[in-house]
Amino acid sequence: MADAITRVGLTAKRGLTGASSVLAELAGWLEARGVLTVFEADTARLVGLPPGRPTASRESLPNECDLIVVLGGDGTLIGIASQIARAGTDVPILGVNFGSLGFLTEITLPELYDALEATLDGCAEIETRAMLRANTMRADAAFADHIVLNDIVITKGAMSRIIEIAVSVGQETVTRVRADGLIVASPTGSTAYNLAAGGPIVHPTVDAMLLTPIAPHTLTNRPVVIPLASEVNLAPVMEEDDEVFVTFDGQSGFPMRPGDRVSIRRAPRAMRIVKSLQRTYFELLREKLKWGGDNR
């Protein structure tokens, strides 16, 4: 890493009481090396941090540190990545998984200090992951703006019939998908909902965007991989009583109305993530997906 790390932000999954002792020990380890620790406010309460210690809200944390250590799972890391994107900073994330190995929080607890020491020394590999920006238009006016790491998903309501979504790339019509929904995923998101829906796994450093129908009515509606420089436009074909929802990284969303359109393109900034010292991406896939092992 080019710049020295003098301030490290610490945040954990909300309510993860098992992380409190780890966080306290980690803060002491960092401060013994002359590194200031800044606790995210909810995490500070989890630890029982004494008054007067540096804290920051989840929204402002990216502006208060040079590195963020995230303890939790992939969902916790995705939330922090979104906050970093909104802040317009390039703060890298070191994700530590509590529980089973994650696709994003790929560093395990026993690996934490080796990974952190390598990061502070400037020896760790920092990988960039493309993010997507989704702009929703309603009544020809800007309605919502989201930046996601994994995916944007348009789905039908629980009791709704199949929905139809008009899809175009740039100015060119692609198709009308009739399905339970449609996923637009980044390469990082290829191992999330996209994978469960039968989409392809794409290496996270590939400049691509994935369009994957969910349970398509017509079997010729297949996943499509397009250049990341493209702009994807989605317009559900709806009546007033149709139930159609759009979600962003599975963490936020809203019901859509007739005439709503979602435009998706590459976000201006990428997420930066500290890579594990212990495993490559393909080793991670073999471990998570049990390739070459006993799959029973």
Describe the structure.
- This protein has 296 residues and is an alpha+beta fold.
- The chain folds into two domains: 7-129 and 270-289, 3-Layer(aba) Sandwich (Rossmann fold), CATH 3.40.50; 132-266, Probable inorganic polyphosphate/atp-NAD kinase, domain 2 (Tumour Suppressor Smad4, Sandwich), CATH 2.60.200.30.
- It is 19% helix and 36% strand.
- The chain contains six helices and 20 strands.
- A six-stranded parallel beta sheet has the order 3-2-1-4-5-6, sandwiched between helices. A six-stranded antiparallel beta sheet has the order 9-8-19-16-11-12. It has a six-stranded antiparallel beta sheet with strand order 15-14-13-10-17-18, with no helix packed on it.
- Strand 4 (67-72), helix 3 (74-87) and strand 5 form a beta-alpha-beta unit.
- The longest helix is centred in the N-terminal third of the chain and has 14 residues, at 74-87.
- It is globular and about 60 Å long.
- The model has no long low-confidence stretch (mean pLDDT 93).
Gist of the model:
The protein has helices at 20-31, 41-47, 74-87, 112-120, 193-196, 281-289, and strands spanning 7-12, 36-40, 55-56, 67-72, 93-97, 107-108, 126-129, 132-138, 141-148, 151-156, 163-169, 172-179, 181-185, 208-214, 224-227, 232-237, 244-248, 252-255, 261-266, 271-274.
